[in-house]
TrEMBL record:
Lineage: Bacteria, Pseudomonadati, Pseudomonadota, Alphaproteobacteria, Rhodospirillales
UniProt keyword Signal, yes or no: yes
Domain (Cytochrome c): residue spans on this chain: 67-152
UniProt KW keywords: Heme, Iron, Metal-binding, Signal
Extent of the signal sequence: 1-23
Protein name: Mono/diheme cytochrome c family protein
InterPro entries per record: Cyt_c-like_dom, Cyt_c-like_dom_sf
Pfam families named in the record: Cytochrome_CBB3
Length: 171
């Protein structure tokens, strides 16, 4: 009987010992200062200039400039091509992997849609497409909308009307 009590006590001690080991095992300290930057500041998760304020409100369309189109092209490539494809034909990589296909931007209905429609779709989402309002700020939505317009026009230009150096680049 005494032997059995001793055995139980020994087992209990072993179990406690095991707990102790778990409590003192090495661990990572989540909030230690990061050394990534020379001033030991932590890299901000989103650069402040790119962050979108929660109260981001709809703003009127900025003037159409080459810079706006370039910005629109860049943002379109980041946020829209995965589904809409680089030419806006609705055959992006995610669609090729099974996501519902969006319509091509080159169908008559979308060619005739006002630029505002593209802005609104990005802001509010449309059917299976979710809203991008929390990722794409108002000015960038206009830039993308302008770029979609340019993309639509780009598919209907007569090759003969293009400057020589552009025509030479055509396949
Ligand atoms: C995850 C895939 C996905 C991404 C990314 C995406 N879309 Fe879409 N989009 C869709 C789908 C799917 C539809 C069709 C929705 C429907 O008809 O139910 C659609 C529809 C549209 C339409 C057509 C609306 C109409 O009147 O038929 C426009 C314009 C559009 N998207 C613009 C954009 C822009 C601009 C971006 C980038 C900011 C973007 N989409 C990003 C999936 C996506």
């Amino acid at each position: 009987m005494t032997a059995r009590i001793l055995a139980v006590a020994a087992l209990a001690l072993l179990a406690l010992g095991a707990c102790d080991n778990m409590a003192s095992q090495p661990r990572d300290k989540t909030w230690r200062p990061a050394n990534a930057l020379p001033d030991r500041k932590v890299w901000p998760p989103v650069p402040p200039a790119e962050a979108i304020a929660r109260e981001d409100v709809a703003r009127p369309a900025p003037p159409l400039t080459p810079a706006l189109l370039a910005r629109g092209q860049e943002r379109f490539a980041i946020y829209c091509t995965p589904c809409h494809g680089y030419l806006g034909e609705g055959d992006g990589m995610i669609v090729q992997r099974g996501f519902p296909a969006p319509p091509s931007f080159h169908i008559d209905r979308l060619r005739q849609a006002p630029t505002q429609h593209f802005y609104d779709v990005v802001t509010r989402g449309y059917g299976a497409m979710y809203s991008y309002a929390d990722r794409v700020a108002s000015d960038d939505r206009w830039a993308i909308a302008a770029y979609i317009r340019a993309l639509q026009d780009s598919q209907r230009v007569a090759a003969a009307s293009l400057p020589d150096e552009v025509r030479r680049g055509l396949k």
